[in-house]
C-alpha cells in the first residue's frame, strides 16, 4: 500500500520556488510556481492553498519592487551622480534581502506544516 | 546545569562580556577619529584604537567559544569535565595574557613592544588581526592545547554526539589554523596567502562549525525537537560550510599576486557561501516552529533566531554583495568591506555567543530562566544592538558605494583622503548608531543584575 502523501509537499515546493525565483533562476522558477499554482488550483488542502497563494502573489509584488522601482530610480535619478547609485544599490540589496528573509520564514513554516501570511505583502485569504 | 564542572564556563562568559564592552568603547573612539582626526591623539592613535578594537573582538569571542565548549561538551558527553581545575587555570592565563597584550598596545610603542617581546627571534607581528606579540601567540597555543586536551578527554570518555564532535572538530581546526600565524615568509604574496589561512579559515571555515554546534545545542534545549532532526540539519550545514568556505578562501586571492584562476575559484565558491547561513536561518526558524515545549527563557530563543537572520544578512548577503571578482575589483578594501565585517561578525559570532550565554547563565545561577523583567530588558538590548548594527551596516555601505564612485569609477578619481572627507556624514551617522549599540550592550549587562522570580514555562 502506498504511504499517504505528505500534506506539506506542495507548500514546501511553492516556498522553494519563490526563493529560487529570487536567488538563482528568476523568471524560470516563477513559471514553475505558476505551473504549480495551476496544478493545485482545485486543492482543498489549506496548507497548499495558503502557501501557493502567498508565494504567487508576493512574487508578483517582488517583481515590481525589484525591477520596476529600481528602473524608476534609474530613470528619475542621474546615473552620473553617485547619490543615484548609492540609493539604487542600497534599495536593491535591502529590498531583495527582506524578500528572501520573508521566503525563509515561509519555507520554515511550510516545513513545519503551518500556514503563513507574508507580513505587509501577503494575501489575507486563500 | 547537569554537571557541576560546567560552571567553569561562567568566568569565561563574564570575561567575554567585559572585553566586549572594551571592544565597543574602542570602536566608538575610532569611529569618532574617522571624523575628528586628532581625537585622543597622541594618547590613543587611530592605528592603536583599531588594533585594540579588532583584537578585543577576537579575544572575547575566543573566551565565549571556550566558555560555550566547557558548558556544552560535558552536557553532551554526559559526564563531568575531565579537569575543571585545568580549565580554570587556562582561564586566568588567557585573561592575564590578553590584558597584558592590550595594555602593551596602549602604553608601549608598537615597535618597542616588538623588540621587548622577541619579535626578532621569530617575526610574527605587524600583520592585521595577528598583531599579538610572540609570547601572547605562544600563550594562545598553550591555552588552546590545554583546552583541547581537556575537552577531548571528556568526549573520549563520554557519549559522542554530532554536536560535541562538531564542536570539538571546530575547536581543533581553530587551534591548527592559528599555527599559520607563526609562518611569516619574506615574500609578501606568500605572507598574505597563508595569513588568510588563519583569518578566512577561522571565520568562514572552522568557526562556522563551532557556531553550528552551539546553535544546535541551544535549539535542542529550548525547542525540545528530536535530536535526530537537529543533528541531520547540523551535518548538512557544516558540510555546506566546508564545501563552500574552504575554496572560497580564493575570494581573498584576487589581487594579491596569485594566479588568475583564483578569480574563478574564489568567485564561484564564495558565491555559494551564503548557503550554510541560509540553511541556518531556515533551521532555527523551523525548529522553533516545530517546538514541543515553551521554554521560559524567551530571550535565549530570540537570540537564537536573531543569529540565523543576522548571520544570513551580514555574512551571506553582504558577503555576496562584493565577493564576485569583477565587483570586488572596484569594492576591494572600501567601507563596503567594513559594512560586511561588522554585520557578519555581529550576526554570526557575537549573537551566537550571546545566545549561549543567555541560555546557560541563568542555569549556572540556579534557575531555568531569568525573571520576566530581566528578560524584557535583555530583549530590549537585543533589539537596540541589532537595529543599531543594521544601521551601522547601512551607513557604512552607503559610505562605501560613494567611496567606490569617487575613488575608482569617477572620470576624475579622488585621492583616498579627499574621498573620506566626502563620506564624513555617513561616518557621523555610523557613530550615532554605535552609541545606540553601546546603550544596548549596557542594558544587556544590566539585565544580569535584575532580580525577581524566575520565569516559568507557559
Structural account:
Chain A is mostly helical and 126 residues long. Chain A has one domain. Chain A has helices at 9-23, 28-39, 46-76, 82-111. The mean pLDDT of chain A is 93. Chain B is 76% helix and 0% strand. The two termini of chain B are 21 Å apart.
Brief descriptors of the model:
heterodimer, A: 126 residues, mainly alpha, 4 helices, B: 458 residues, 16 helices, 0% strand
Task: Offer a concise description of the structure.
The complex is a heterodimer of chains A (126) and B (458). Chain A is mainly alpha-helical.
Q: How many β-strand stretches of chain A?
A: 0
Specify the biggest β-sheet of chain B: none
The poorly predicted ranges of chain B are: none
Proportion of β residues of chain A? under 5%
Oligomeric composition of the shown chains: heterodimer
Rounded to an integer in angstroms, the radius of gyration calculated over CA atoms of chain B is 22 Å
Tell me, briefly, the overall form of chain B. Answer: globular
Structural class of chain A: mainly alpha
Largest binding interface between chains = A-B, 19 and 21 residues
The rounded Rg of chain A comes to 17 Å
- Summarize the helix and strand pattern of chain A as letters: HHHH
Topology:
The complex is a heterodimer of chains A (126) and B (458).
Chain A: H1 9-23, H2 28-39, H3 46-76, H4 82-111
Chain B: H1 9-35, H2 46-77, H3 84-107, H4 110-116, H5 134-157, H6 162-178, H7 188-223, H8 227-248, H9 261-271, H10 274-289, H11 298-321, H12 325-331, H13 335-364, H14 372-409, H15 416-422, H16 424-447
Helix pairs in contact in B: 1-2, 1-16, 2-3, 2-5, 2-6, 2-13, 3-5, 5-6, 6-7, 7-8, 7-10, 7-11, 7-13, 8-9, 8-10, 10-11, 11-13, 11-14, 13-14, 14-15, 14-16
Amino acid at each position: 500500500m502506498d504511504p499517504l502523501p505528505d500534506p506539506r509537499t506542495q507548500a514546501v515546493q511553492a516556498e522553494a520556488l519563490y526563493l529560487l525565483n529570487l536567488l538563482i533562476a528568476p523568471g524560470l522558477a516563477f513559471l514553475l510556481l505558476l505551473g504549480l499554482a495551476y496544478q493545485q488550483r482545485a486543492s482543498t488542502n489549506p496548507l497548499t492553498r495558503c502557501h501557493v497563494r502567498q508565494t504567487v502573489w508576493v512574487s508578483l509584488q517582488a517583481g515590481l519592487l525589484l525591477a520596476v522601482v529600481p528602473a524608476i530610480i534609474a530613470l528619475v535619478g542621474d546615473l552620473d551622480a553617485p547619490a543615484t547609485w548609492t540609493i539604487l544599490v542600497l534599495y536593491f540589496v535591502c529590498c531583495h534581502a527582506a524578500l528572501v528573509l520573508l521566503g525563509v520564514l515561509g519555507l520554515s513554516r511550510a516545513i513545519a506544516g503551518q500556514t503563513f501570511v507574508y507580513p505587509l505583502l501577503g494575501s489575507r485569504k486563500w | 546545569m547537569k554537571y557541576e564542572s560546567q560552571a567553569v564556563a561562567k568566568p569565561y562568559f563574564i570575561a567575554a562580556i567585559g572585553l566586549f564592552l572594551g571592544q565597543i568603547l574602542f570602536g566608538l573612539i575610532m569611529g569618532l577619529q574617522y571624523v575628528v582626526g586628532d581625537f585622543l591623539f597622541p594618547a590613543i592613535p587611530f592605528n592603536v584604537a583599531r588594533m585594540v578594537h579588532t583584537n578585543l573582538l577576537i579575544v572575547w569571542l575566543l573566551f565565549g567559544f571556550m566558555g560555550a565548549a566547557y558548558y556544552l561538551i560535558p552536557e553532551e558527553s554526559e559526564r563531568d569535565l575531565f579537569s575543571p581545575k585545568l580549565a580554570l587555570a587556562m582561564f586566568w592565563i588567557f585573561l592575564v595574557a590578553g590584558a597584558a597584550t592590550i595594555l602593551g598596545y596602549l602604553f608601549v610603542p608598537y615597535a618597542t613592544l616588538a623588540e621587548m617581546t622577541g619579535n626578532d627571534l621569530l617575526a610574527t607581528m605587524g600583520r592585521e588581526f595577528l598583531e599579538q606579540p610572540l609570547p601572547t601567540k605562544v600563550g594562545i597555543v598553550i591555552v588552546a592545547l590545554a583546552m583541547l586536551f581537556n575537552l577531548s578527554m571528556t568526549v573520549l570518555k563520554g557519549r559522542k554526539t554530532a554536536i560535541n564532535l562538531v564542536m570539538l572538530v571546530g575547536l581543533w581546526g581553530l587551534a591548527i589554523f592559528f599555527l599559520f600565524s607563526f609562518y611569516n615568509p619574506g615574500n609578501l604574496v606568500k605572507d598574505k596567502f597563508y595569513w588568510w589561512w588563519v583569518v578566512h579559515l577561522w571565520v568562514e571555515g572552522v568557526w562556522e562549525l563551532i557556531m553550528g554546534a552551539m546553535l544546535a545545542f541551544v535549539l535542542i534545549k529550548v525547542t525540545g525537537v528530536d535530536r535526530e532532526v537537529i543533528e541531520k540539519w547540523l551535518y548538512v550545514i557544516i558540510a555546506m560550510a566546508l564545501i563552500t568556505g574552504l575554496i572560497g578562501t580564493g575570494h581573498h586571492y584576487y589581487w594579491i599576486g596569485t594566479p588568475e584562476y583564483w578569480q574563478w575559484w574564489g568567485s564561484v565558491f564564495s558565491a555559494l557561501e551564503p548557503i550554510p547561513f541560509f540553511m541556518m536561518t531556515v533551521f532555527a526558524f523551523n525548529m522553533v516552529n516545530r517546538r514541543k515545549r515553551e521554554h521560559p527563557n524567551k530571550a535565549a530563543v530570540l537570540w537564537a533566531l536573531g543569529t540565523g537572520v543576522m548571520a544570513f544578512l551580514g555574512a551571506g548577503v553582504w558577503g555576496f554583495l562584493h565577493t564576485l571578482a569583477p565587483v570586488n575589483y572596484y569594492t576591494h578594501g572600501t567601507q563596503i568591506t567594513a559594512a560586511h565585517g561588522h554585520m557578519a561578525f555581529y550576526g554570526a559570532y557575537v549573537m551566537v555567543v550571546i545566545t549561549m550565554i543567555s541560555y546557560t547563565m541563568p542555569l549556572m545561577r540556579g534557575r531555568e530562566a531569568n525573571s520576566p523583567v530581566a528578560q524584557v530588558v535583555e530583549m530590549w538590548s537585543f533589539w537596540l544592538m541589532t537595529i543599531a548594527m543594521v544601521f551601522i551596516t547601512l551607513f557604512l555601505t552607503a559610505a562605501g558605494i560613494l567611496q567606490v564612485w569617487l575613488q575608482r569609477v569617477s572620470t576624475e578619481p579622488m585621492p583616498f583622503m579627499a574621498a573620506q572627507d566626502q563620506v564624513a556624514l555617513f561616518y557621523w551617522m555610523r557613530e550615532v548608531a554605535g552609541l545606540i549599540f553601546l546603550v544596548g550592550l549596557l542594558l544587556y549587562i544590566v539585565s544580569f543584575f535584575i532580580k525577581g522570580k524566575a520565569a516559568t514555562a507557559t
